[in-house]
Write a structure and sequence with these properties.
single chain, alpha/beta, Rossmann fold, five-stranded parallel sheet, binds 2'-deoxycytidine-5'-monophosphate
Length: 202
């Protein structure tokens, strides 16, 4: 049976990049659980009820091209605070985590709620100003018109909402290893994560 790697942390700390690299390195599957909340949010922005949207999500919802937009991200953080939405998305994530070959899941509550028994738990952080700069660059590269101060305010608002909600708030599991990517290159951050997983395997 393969292992499960839980990667949690705030927006734009680098958990997606680290998770994709870990999956590639070890030949594991990767699930970006934020996409489930973004896809739910995109349907809600289109007029659906949040609980119905989460329950009826299908593959096409996850392939929408608007899921990375700032408005969808902000709505995702709102719908993620609704317990019925989280409950609807839970089993899919748990099933993915126990795929035979091994799995990397990234999100906010993977190590605490979705996979409390994950063999490796990482909590990836970076200073809000650095995360806002990275997200700003991404949004501009994707064709959105915005400014750095707006993105920084969004990052702070999303952090506060994701940490402050009652149901499955973002926080490190007691046995999570923290990686602060503020002063690390992508290669350095990935090397650190690979090293932590390799240690856990031996
Ligand atoms: O990782 P992301 O930025 O794509 O996530 C979008 C929102 O979804 C985030 O603000 C909080 C929510 N989310 C969550 O509550 N739990 C997860 N496991 C993943 C994301």
């Amino acid at each position: 049976m393969g292992m499960t790697i839980a990667v949690d942390g705030p927006a734009a700390a680098g958990k997606g990049t680290i998770s994709r690299a870990l999956a590639l390195h070890f030949g594991f599957g990767h699930l970006d659980t934020g996409l489930l909340y973004r896809a739910t949010a995109a349907r809600v922005l289109g007029g659906d009820d949040p609980e119905v949207a989460a329950r009826d999500l299908g593959p096409a919802d996850l392939e929408r091209r608007d899921l990375r937009e700032a408005a969808v991200a902000a709505k995702a953080s709102e719908v993620a605070a609704i317990p019925a939405v989280r409950a609807s998305l839970l089993q899919f994530q748990r099933d993915f985590a126990r795929r035979g070959s091994g799995a990397v899941l990234d999100g906010r509550d993977i190590g605490t709620v979705i996979c409390p028994d994950a063999e490796v738990k990482l909590f990836v952080i970076a200073a809000p100003e650095i995360r806002a700069r990275r997200r700003f660059d991404e949004l501009v590269a994707g064709g959105e018109t915005t400014d750095y101060e707006t993105v920084l305010a969004d990052v702070r608002a999303r952090d506060a909402r994701d940490m402050g909600r009652a149901d499955a708030p973002m926080r490190p599991a007691n046995d999570a290893v923290e990686i602060d990517t503020s002063d690390l290159s992508i290669d350095e951050a990935v090397a650190r994560a690979v090293g932590i997983v390799e240690n856990a395997r031996t």
